[in-house]
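Per-record layout

source: Lichenifustis flavocetrariae
name: NAD(P) transhydrogenase subunit alpha part 1
length: 377
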Amino acid sequence: MRIAVPSETDPAEPRVAITPDMVRKYIGIGAEVVVQSGAGLKAGIRDADFEAAGAKIAPSGVLEGADVVLRVRRPAADDLTGLKPGALVLAIMDPYGQEAALQALAGSGATAFAMELMPRITRAQVMDVLSSQANLAGYRVVIDAAEQYGRAFPMMMTAAGTVPAARVFIMGVGVAGLQAIATARRLGAIVTATDVRPATKEQVESLGAKFIAVEDEEFKQAETSGGYAKEMSDAYKAKQATLVAAHIAKQDIVITTALIPGRPAPKLVTAEMVHSMRPGSVVMDLAVERGGNCELSRPGEVVEIEGVKIVGYLNVAGRLAATASSLYARNLFAFVETLIDKDTKSLRVDPNDELVRATCLTRDGAVIHPNFLPKVA
Ligand code: NAD
């Protein structure tokens, strides 16, 4: 069985889908590993490190004869030229609203898996790329906020006078938001947070932050059975926006992380709210790739309005490329291991396995995932 790791084709993607540690693990389960020359450089891994772990390094043509292709991002059809029909391709596929790209993926003959669709069940926790990457993004976004903010985070009592602690408000308390709360607290900020899922109140408080939300009947029912946020009614959104508006005016840093699976990110911070913040304040929009939680954020840009910075960094987990690659590569290995027959050391993909059903997008030249079937005209 041959595992191939081509270089990422998007120049803005510094992560890599395998590390030397995981090369050893794949070899340990009977695979051979080919890594494209330079694939790990932006994540701090040299070809020689991969070679020392037992991988072959190839300047090109890594897909030749590959049974499994590991990537960070969804490959374009061009990236899969020469792929063996039926070879497995694993990546963060970003499948929503990407009908043409999924058709192209199917056309390449790949059996493609979207790692971000992994069910959040106990067995699959170790394969949960959303969590591993969101956790790092939640940490990094606070570090980036501290860099953009022209003042200190902790309260400082000095001979020259007292410096007040920064006030940080986290909107959306999933995996990223929880890590952002913990990180901002560690830096000494006064932290508040909000979410539409009632279960988050206790989590916020257990991290030493204060919970801010309209806690009415709708709020008490606002979680799906899968643990995700529901889209809230317009009436709830209006009540919550009034509460949040008054709160944001008093904050130094607002970090937004709110997402609803398969939908555009909810708009939570209006232009008016930004105008209410004092100069020097910062809004960090972690949802910018999904349309943004702030009306004024722009993907990949730092917008400055009346002295308030609205930061829309892309691929925030990628800003910690080495750590993000290491966790992502472990997530991938844990899944690939389930697709291998231990006795024959060859691939055996069970189409009825819960994890395969949840993540497999394309097979035998067609899109097969029920959520992404082509629309019939
Ligand atoms: P996410 O990235 O989908 O969303 C981030 C947060 O934004 C969520 O907490 C969501 O409730 C919140 N949000 C959505 N709309 C909002 C709004 N209008 N205002 C404020 N907040 C809003 O979430 P996630 O980090 O992927 O976590 C989602 C769920 O999955 C959580 O219940 C989490 O505990 C759970 N989870 C389970 C596992 C597991 O069991 N393996 C692993 C990770 C996460």
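summary: The domain at 2-117+320-363 is CATH 3.40.50.720 (Rossmann fold). The first strand starts at residue 2 and ends at 5.
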